[in-house]
Specification:
single chain, 190 residues, Jelly Rolls, four-stranded antiparallel beta sheet, 14 strands, globular
Amino acid sequence: MIIKVLDVTYDVTEAVDYYNTVNTVEYQSLTWFAKDESNNDLSISKVRGWAIQYPNNHISGPYNMAWGWDILDPKLYRNSEIAFGFSKKILTIFPLAVRAFIYVNPPGTHFQPHIDTTKVFRIHIPIISNPDASWITEEGITNMIPGNAYLVDTSFTHETINAGTSDRVHIELEMRREDIHTISNLSIRI
């Protein structure tokens, strides 16, 4: 299993309202942009996001969640300014998750085939998507649908493509492999 649909559903309108609030002028100073990372890949240069959690040693401002792969203890994180409303509910449901963030893949984004750390699983909470925003793994093509939560093992080769005409917006969380048993029987309606 590389991608598994969890038995967690939520109100998509509430999730979109939360994202629309975060995506306002009030929170723009906290936005992380891929183009700031000496990135030469134009297909991901407009990717952006916000940290819902910061490592305890982060002072202030934007925080790129691509950093800090070794910081996996939930006690080493604190909530950021955008940990409210819908995201706070998600953090409550997954209390052992770390590195929570919102990730926006604009149209044309293509993360080439790669493997991430083997230390974690990722939990994806799609907020906005389109039929042409896909995850590609050896198991096939998956379109993550808002209203559902997904457990993803990114230690396998995977790529993502947003070939649609709208943004793909997900809340992503990471969970240590040794903690994954805590969500095996989870059945929640938010």
